[in-house]
Task: structure prediction
Amino acid sequence: MKLVAQVKLLASPEQKQVLLTTLKKANEACNRMSEHAWQNKCFKQFDLHKACYHNIREEFGLASQLIIRCNAKVADSYKLDKLTKRDFRPTGSIAYDSRILTFFTEESQISLWTVVGRMKIPFAAGEFQKEMLLTQKGECDLCFIGGEFYLMVVCDIAEAPQNEATEYIGVDLGIVQIASDSEGNQYSGESIRSLRRRMRKLKAGLQHTAKKHGSKSAKRHLQKLRRRQSRFTKWVNHNISRRLVESAAVSGKAIALEDLSGIRERASVMNRDGGSNLWGEMRFELGNWSFDQLKQFVSYKARRAGVPVVLVDPRNTSRTCSTCGYCDKHNRKSQCKFQCLECGLISPPSTVKAPCL
Result:
């Protein structure tokens, strides 16, 4: 199983400047190769390498292996289609492989090629990331995000053998309750919804300022808020997925998740005019619902723990009793209360709140 470990480089200001120069030169070389590919309709990696390698090496002074990686980046970009010329951002990510990057995991350092030669840079990683780095395989991407440099490291993680489960823990996904399982646990989404509402008000004011006055400070603040909201949502989803998988692993059961593919196109709410278009708060909530991210987190954690995961049709999952299987729309007394008309089960017996800021 392939997982990506994100490693932050603790580069000094001088090292950051060197890395930034390296990124810009490499992407400038990519643009030069893309120009040649577009003009000569030469899109294959081998043909592009044969035509551009020596000229790029002489003009930009990049390492041989870095030019090869840039060449692969350009060729890959034209695999989708050859109808549009590809341009690369000055600070776009660049791939490194074992010939131009070496990990010293015990010392928490890396050695990588730059425009001034090999450079050793310390990195920040916890024990979990260091354990993943021992299985590092293939290329790493050097990325410049929010003024800091990160390495996206591909790791080949061993999967545990799947247990032969005959029973399932059903997981109902939602907006108010991010997840509700058939064991009676609910994972509240109020902390995320509260953060989104606050961010929405802040962003509205900043967007107005940025548009009216062209404020660069407002634009930087908007990016900061976007990253903060994304980090918090991801952290909450990681916690919920871990608890769901741990519960299934301990009980020896499999996990049944709702398949919500295309839910934004299918879902609708009546507007004031009687139509069925999404509008207002409902559109905002659906647009910010990170159900797919939670599904991905549950899937990879389950594979590591040997817990089978199946996707089921979401129809009537919120109206079906987890004990006797009786399904009726009147079972759902309200959004937050379930009472089975057949066996009398009242749910939820317990609620697990997602952490707040």
